[in-house]
Specification:
Number of domains: 1
Shape: globular
Largest sheet: 6 strands, mixed
Number of helices: 8
CATH architecture: 3-Layer(aba) Sandwich
CATH superfamily: Pyruvate-ferredoxin oxidoreductase, PFOR, domain III
Distance between the termini: 34 Å
Strand order of the largest sheet: 2-3-1-4-5-6
CATH topology: Pyruvate-ferredoxin Oxidoreductase, domain 3
Strand content: 15-25%
Number of strands: 6
Radius of gyration: 16 Å
Structural class: alpha/beta
Order of helices and strands: EHEEEHEHHEHHHH
CATH class: Alpha Beta
Length: 208
């Protein structure tokens, strides 16, 4: 483990999507791997429906819980416009993993932010590497929209400085004792999230 390398992950979305839970799982996985971890969260106008962001930073030693604009390695957008809105947090060469579901947050309804016509195209026009897919459709096919959380974590699993299996175990371990029936479906959601990210990466590469 390098003394200086710090991994910065910004998770953003709408209240009720599981943004904070995803950030907590990432933090707990990093702690289990021996990293020093700092995490901060900002909830928007409402617990459910307001915008939510969570910063997760880990390395050998981390002093601040807040990611400086332009230094995030991974942007995880649970909602597509929120992903677009936080593009400036990414470092050059960083990756945005975006769920293409469209939800209208209060910042749009009160006129503080205009919902973009094509958020993914807008991000790519800014030079951002974006891997996008419909996480909501995957979750609905599995029978539970709450699985978007696990799907998005699966999507970034191959971009983290620890094995994907460790992240998956951190997720399913939360269910083994209290809700064992949820273990298998979360394993499927994690696997489908990884596959969706890989498919989007391949499609982007094929299109040049």
């Amino acid at each position: 483990m390098s003394d200086t390398i710090i991994t910065n992950i910004l998770v953003c979305g709408i209240g009720g999507q599981g943004v904070m839970t995803a950030a907590e799982i990432l933090a707990q996985t990093a702690i289990a791997k021996g990293f020093d971890v700092k995490k901060s969260e900002v909830a928007g106008m409402a617990q459910r429906g307001g915008v939510v962001t969570s910063h997760v930073r880990f390395g050998k030693k981390v002093w601040s819980p807040v990611i400086t604009p332009g230094t995030a390695d991974i942007l995880v957008g649970f909602e597509v416009a929120e992903g677009s809105r936080w593009t400036d947090m990414l470092r050059p060469g960083g990756v945005a993993m975006v769920n293409t579901i469209r939800l209208t947050p209060p910042v749009v309804s009160v006129g503080l932010f205009k919902y973009p016509d094509d958020p993914v195209a807008q991000m790519r026009a800014a030079g951002v590497t974006v891997y996008d897919f419909d996480g909501g459709a995957i979750a609905r096919a599995l029978g539970d929209l709450r699985l978007v959380n696990t799907i998005m974590l699966g999507a970034i699993a191959d971009y983290l400085p620890f094995p994907a299996d460790d992240l998956e175990e951190q997720i399913v371990g939360r269910f083994r004792v209290r809700k064992p029936a949820m273990v298998e479906v979360n394993q499927k959601a994690f696997s489908l999230g990884r596959a969706a990210a890989r498919a989007s990466q391949q499609a982007l590469a094929a299109n040049g």
